[in-house]
Every structure is written in C-alpha cells, then in structure tokens.
C-alpha cells in the first residue's frame, strides 16, 4: 500500500483563494493523502467552503482555532493532528502541480542520498496571475552549513516533504516566536538530523497578489538576531560560518537603516576580522545612507567582492 502523505494547509480569511489550492490537492496523481486544513480563526466564509469539499471527499479534515495565532501555530496544529508517513505543506493561496506528491514520494524511494529525511522541489512564481520567475534548488545531501551560511536553498514550506519520524523523534515545530523566516528556522531544525534531496522541476505555483502582507524590515532584522541566538552553538563550530552569518546580518541591518546596529555587529561579534569586514566597516561609516548613485554602485560592488 502507498505511504500516507499528510498535507497541512493553514488559512486565514482566504475563502476566495482556497478553492484553487484544495483542487490542486484533489488533482494529485498520488491518491493516498490526507489534507488537514487549519483555519486560523477566519471570520469570512472559509468554513463553509471547506465543509463543501469535505462533503465530497473524506480525505479532507478541518480544524478551526478559537483565536488568530499565526501560521506557525496553525501548521503545528496540523502536524499534531496528522497521521502520514510523510508531511508536506501548502499555503491556501498557492497550488501544487498534479505530480507534486508522487514525484517527492518517489524521490524518497529512489534517492541515493543516505539518511534522507526531506525532499524539496522547484517553484514557479506568479504576480496577479502573470508568471515572472521559475527556480529549482540544486543542493543535496547535508545542507546544514548552507542553511547557516544563508545560501539560497528554497526553504519555503510548500516545497518541502519531510519524513514524519524526523519531526516526531526530535519534537520539531514551527517557532511562533520567530518574527520572520519561520520556514528557514524549521528546515534548519530538520537538517540537524537528516539529509536533503530535491526533485529537479517546479512542482508548486506560488501566487503573489495585491493586498498580501507587506514585508516588514523591522521584523526581518529582529528575526535575524533571534536566529543568531538560537543557532549560535552551531555557528561557533566553524568561525568562517559564524562570521559569514554575522556579516550578512550586519549588511541586512544596514540596508534597512539600522546603521549603528550593523557597525556594532561587525565590531563586537566577528571572530576573525578580515578584509571583507574591514571593507564593509569603511563603507558603512562613509555611506550612512544608500541614496546616491555612488553609494548604491559601491554597495553592489562590495556584495560581489565579498560573495554576499
């Protein structure tokens, strides 16, 4: 018998988009799945939309939280209620390609990666229905260092399929206290214990739309700092990895206008202050704002020269 795959879908006030996401699950070529829709206290017609689907397909389950607590709590609820051998996720405004689940389960069975616990895939991005980006990750094996170096991996939850045993054996959850980058945090927890492979084709359509939540620089800066404190014990195992993480954290702070914080990070947290750090310190002292053409051009040059 095919392994059971649990698909966890958090949602909040997205009745107009939910149908597309659910139908993409119903259209999967893989049939042994359960869809756990966790309603984060919606006040629209979400419940009725879901109940209409449940009346037609018993594989769909619905849980409603009493108060709005955010996507992390909703995903954790879905994980707790799930029964699958594998767990994957889908945001309620996105959609799967029809062979998404099949290809990822097959990858688990045929991959040559030892201790495989998570399989990712590529993505196609749409803005108001118009395709503008397509990307497939190219890493496999032990990717923990790549995560700590903040290399591009494709950590978004809709792309990941994870062995249930990895999550359960190590009590892995989404961190509701992480202000941003919760998907990176979740995958970093997972990849401390297991290895990574990828289906080398886009299997998820990611829909960006007018009215979606605006990116919050303050939360992003705060999240980088919390990630540093949470994983400092791992970062300190290799000074180069630690210093690269801190340098990227400082540059992010500078970009979002936290100049003093950026300079303090470079002065106080770097273990080995090499030429890269010195260049960024000089630049941040001189270009307090990236408004002039010269400041912007120098910033781009520095990012390339220091491999950030």
The proportion of strand residues reads 15-25%
Q: Enumerate how many helices there are, as a single number.
A: 12
Low-confidence spans: none
End-to-end span in angstroms? Answer: 47 Å
Number of strands: 9
CATH architecture of the largest domain: Alpha-Beta Complex
Structural class: alpha/beta
Question: What is the top-level CATH class of the largest domain?
Answer: Alpha Beta
Number of domain modules: 2
Rg computed from alpha carbons, rounded to a whole number of angstroms: 21 Å
Overall mean confidence score, pLDDT: 94
Reported by name, the CATH topology of the largest domain is Spore Coat Polysaccharide Biosynthesis Protein SpsA, Chain A
Q: Determine the CATH superfamily of the largest domain.
A: Spore Coat Polysaccharide Biosynthesis Protein SpsA, Chain A
**What share of residues is helical?**
40-55%
Taken from the alpha-carbon principal axes, the silhouette is globular
What string gives the helices and strands in order? Answer: EHEHEHEEHEEHEHHEHHHHH
Keywords: Transferase
InterPro entries: Glyco_trans_2-like, Nucleotide-diphossugar_trans
Organism: Pontibacter mucosus
GO molecular function, one term: hexosyltransferase activity
């Amino acid at each position: 018998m095919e392994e059971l795959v649990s698909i966890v879908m958090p949602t909040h006030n997205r009745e107009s988009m939910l149908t597309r996401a659910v139908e993409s699950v119903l259209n999967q070529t893989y049939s042994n799945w359960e869809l756990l829709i966790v309603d984060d206290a919606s006040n629209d017609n979400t419940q009725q939309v879901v109940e209409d689907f449940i009346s037609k397909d018993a594989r769909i389950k619905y849980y409603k939280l009493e108060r709005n607590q955010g996507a992390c709590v909703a995903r954790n609820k879905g994980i707790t209620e799930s029964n699958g051998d594998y767990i994957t996720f889908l945001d309620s405004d996105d959609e799967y390609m029809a062979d998404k689940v099949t290809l990822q389960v097959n990858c688990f069975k045929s991959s040559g990666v030892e201790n495989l616990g998570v399989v990712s895939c590529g993505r196609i991005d749409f803005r108001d229905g118009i395709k503008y980006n397509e990307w497939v990750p190219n890493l496999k094996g032990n990717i923990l260092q790549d995560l700590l170096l903040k290399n591009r991996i494709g950590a978004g939850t809709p792309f990941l399929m994870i062995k249930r045993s990895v999550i359960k054996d190590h009590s892995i959850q989404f961190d509701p206290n992480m202000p941003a980058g919760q998907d990176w945090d979740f995958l970093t927890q997972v990849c401390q214990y297991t290895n990574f492979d990828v289906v080398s084709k886009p299997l998820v359509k990611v829909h960006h739309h007018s009215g979606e939540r605006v990116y919050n620089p303050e939360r992003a800066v705060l999240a980088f700092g919390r990630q540093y404190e949470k994983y400092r014990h791992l970062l300190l195992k290799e000074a180069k990895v630690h210093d690269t993480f801190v340098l990227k954290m400082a540059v992010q702070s500078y970009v979002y206008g936290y100049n003093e914080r950026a300079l303090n990070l470079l002065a106080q947290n770097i273990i080995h202050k090499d030429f890269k750090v010195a260049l960024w310190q000089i630049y941040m002292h001189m270009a307090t704002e990236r408004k002039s053409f010269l400041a912007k051009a120098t910033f781009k040059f520095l990012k390339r020269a220091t491999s950030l």
